[in-house]
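Section 5: illustrative case.
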């Protein structure tokens, strides 16, 4: 009913992770939800999963060839044109987010390809897997905000799941440095804001990611094109966050999904497993050092 169009519903084996996006034609939902061990609460979780999957369709995650996407194509192409490397370095200088320099926009007119969508734009980034992971979290945050704005009746269910996720987060000091920016972004987009320990230890990263989310995702009319431009800004920040502890294993970002592998929608893996139980602990118990650099 939310989408206003016919869609298929297909089962998946487990609750989907927060960064994956479906295919725009099928809503994939778990065949069984037993997170709370309470029939009513588990049904409310199922409603939230269904609403988010439908929201991706209703609020234009899969739209193609719109003026917004064409504008995003022009901007992303210009930013990652090799000729603009100097401006791109300045963009992330010292970890501070600046507006894109005017020179990055360029004077050249770059023709947008036909059948333009979010997936084709993410392939323009120098590290597409990283861009997809950032985009997935940002886009699900946009969908969550749009759902809350349009369907006030969903608010109680959305808040219930948000509070469950907040209570399930690991301590920020227990995470490998490579996962820290992803966790902070997830808290800001999906949990109503960064938790106290994230603000205490990583206030600059929190502040900059909050600025991105506020600038691009909180408008009542925010589109997938806005999410893509937000991804450009967050991408620069993520690339500038470098762990100083060489013992931290590099994060493996997911491979680009095929059509048959793009079935999941949103919400954290912590709906199935507490992250404190499965994230690797750092050696020696010391908080990893992070630095922002240009």
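Designed sequence:
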């Amino acid at each position: 009913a939310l989408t206003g169009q016919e869609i298929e519903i297909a089962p998946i084996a487990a609750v989907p992770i927060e960064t994956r996006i479906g295919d725009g034609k099928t809503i994939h939902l778990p065949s069984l939800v037993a997170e709370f061990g309470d029939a009513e609460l588990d049904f409310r979780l199922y409603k939230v999963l269904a609403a988010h999957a439908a929201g991706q369709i209703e609020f234009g995650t899969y739209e193609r060839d719109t003026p917004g996407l064409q504008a995003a194509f022009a901007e992303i192409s210009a930013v990652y044109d090799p000729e603009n490397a100097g401006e791109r370095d300045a963009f992330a200088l010292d970890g501070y987010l600046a507006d894109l320099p005017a020179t990055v926009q360029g004077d050249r007119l770059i023709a947008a390809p036909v059948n333009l969508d979010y997936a084709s734009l993410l392939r323009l980034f120098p590290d597409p897997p990283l861009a997809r992971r950032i985009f997935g979290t940002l886009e699900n945050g946009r969908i969550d905000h749009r759902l809350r704005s349009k369907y006030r009746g969903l608010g109680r269910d959305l808040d219930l799941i948000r509070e469950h996720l907040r209570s399930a987060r690991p301590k920020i000091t227990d995470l490998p440095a490579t996962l820290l920016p992803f966790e902070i972004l997830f808290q800001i987009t999906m949990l109503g804001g960064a938790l106290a320990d994230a603000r205490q230890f990583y206030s600059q990263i929190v502040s900059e990611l909050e600025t991105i989310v506020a600038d691009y995702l909180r408008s009542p009319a925010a589109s997938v094109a806005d999410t893509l431009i937000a991804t450009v800004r967050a991408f620069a920040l993520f690339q500038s966050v470098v762990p100083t502890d060489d013992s931290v294993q590099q994060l493996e970002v997911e491979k680009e999904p095929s059509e048959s592998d793009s079935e999941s929608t949103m919400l954290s893996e912590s709906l199935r497993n507490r992250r404190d139980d499965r994230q690797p602990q750092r050696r020696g118990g010391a908080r990893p050092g992070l630095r922002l650099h240009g």
